[in-house]
Amino acid sequence: MCELLALSGRLPTTLRLSLDELARHGGESGPHRDGWGVGFMQEGDALLIREPEAASDSNFLAFVRQQEIRSSAVIAHIRKATQGPRLLRNTQPFTRELGGRAHVFAHNGMLTGIEGDARFPTSRFRRIGDTDSEHAFCALLDRLAPLWERGQPPLGDRLAVVTAFAAELRALGPANFLYTDGDAIFAHGHRRRDDTGEMRPPGLHVLCRRCSARDDGLPLPGLSIEPDHEQEVALAASVPLTNEPWQALGEGEIAVLRGGRLVRRMPAP
């Protein structure tokens, strides 16, 4: 199955993209050799970088990790293809415009039959590629679109739509996903295949961290955070990436990351 990673910061900070640990999952020690991508949210837009190649031996990724990209919200994905060929159009994360800003989404799992399921129609938003994940993203944005007609809706209203959507999505199969509208990151944990081959929760884990300009940086397998000020970060990942007290999300639970903090946890209804 694919690997997911999200980061929310209190302030935009310089991120040196390494994806070292995720790259090992993405080809060196794992089966996820079918593509990688990362979305950096910046002032309502998204810098989206994707490649349908293994992250572990990507020259493009080696170049990107040298760049000083500042962002307060990041979503990354490493792909193991289960639907759709190994092409750029099937490489996550995906992005679309809604309400005059970029929205970004990445999914881990299989959503059997979503294309023909009447609960997940797509009208305004259509997929470009062949994946169930992109169809799910388009269906979610169709549900959210009425909220964004008059600007950014309250967080609680957005969370209610995401929660109802996730509950229906779980009926189709493993439905771990990360979604951001640039203001908050919604992390939905469901089930994923563990080391024994069994499909079971947890599907995502979360961790909060703090660092300061006096530090040498905040190294994390996947991202190196180099603050020039006091910084708080909240992270979500498919599996714990460090030897720290990561919190497993319950089956169907949604965590909301905003401003570098875990601001809401919504158990499955």
Descriptive overview:
It is built from four helices and 17 strands. The protein is of the alpha+beta class. It has a single domain, classed as Glutamine Phosphoribosylpyrophosphate, subunit 1, domain 1. The radius of gyration is 17 Å and the shape is globular. The two termini are 25 Å apart.
Structural class: alpha+beta
Radius of gyration: 17 Å
> Judging by the overall fold, what is the CATH architecture?
4-Layer Sandwich
Strand percentage: 35-45%
CATH superfamily: Aminohydrolase, N-terminal nucleophile (Ntn) domain
Helix content: 10-25%
Q: DSSP helix count? A: 4
- Mean pLDDT score: 86
> What would the principal axes of the Cα set say about the shape?
globular
Number of distinct beta strands: 17
As residue ranges, the low-confidence spans are: 25-29
CATH topology: Glutamine Phosphoribosylpyrophosphate, subunit 1, domain 1
Describe the main β-sheet briefly.
Answer: 9 strands, antiparallel
Total count of domains? 1
Q: Which CATH class applies here?
A: Alpha Beta
Reading the helices and strands in chain order gives: EHEEHEEEHHEEEEEEEEEEE
